[in-house]
Design a protein that fits this description.
The chain is of the alpha+beta class. It has one domain. Helices cover 22% and strands 44% of the residues. The protein has one helix spanning 74-95, and strands at residues 2-4, 10-12, 14-20, 25-30, 39-51, 54-66. The strands form two sheets. The chain has a four-stranded antiparallel β-sheet, with no helix packed on it. Strands 1-2 form a two-stranded antiparallel ribbon. Strand 3 (14-20) and strand 4 form a beta hairpin. The radius of gyration is 15 Å and the shape is globular.
């Protein structure tokens, strides 16, 4: 899972380690955003389920390791990153193209 940065550059956040189309499940490994520069690793699983003519997305993200200064305020940052990720996935699914930057 990669991100193109405004003004050039890019970031590789996560790598797919498991994909099961029959179960509509995909699992990633790695660290996102501010966790990348730390001694942190994580696993994130996304499962999609058809429901009431739409789709339910369940996202389970777990990280652990060493974070200089402690993880204290990081849960809020992680929630923000994951909320943004889900918004981008929703846009892509509905529009068949990436969400424009900004």
């Amino acid at each position: 899972m990669c991100e193109t940065l405004p003004g050039g550059g890019s970031v590789q956040h996560l790598v797919v380690i498991y994909a099961d189309p029959a179960r509509t499940t995909i699992r990633f490994r790695g660290a996102m955003g501010p966790f990348q520069g730390q001694g942190v690793d994580g696993a994130m699983t996304i499962t999609l389920t058809a429901k009431d003519g739409g789709t339910t997305l369940v996202l389970d993200s777990n990280i652990g390791g060493y974070f200089k200064g402690g993880f204290g305020k990081m849960p809020n940052a992680a929630d923000g990153m994951l909320t943004d990720l889900v918004a981008h996935l929703k846009y892509y699914a509905e529009n068949e193209k990436a969400l424009p930057p900004g």
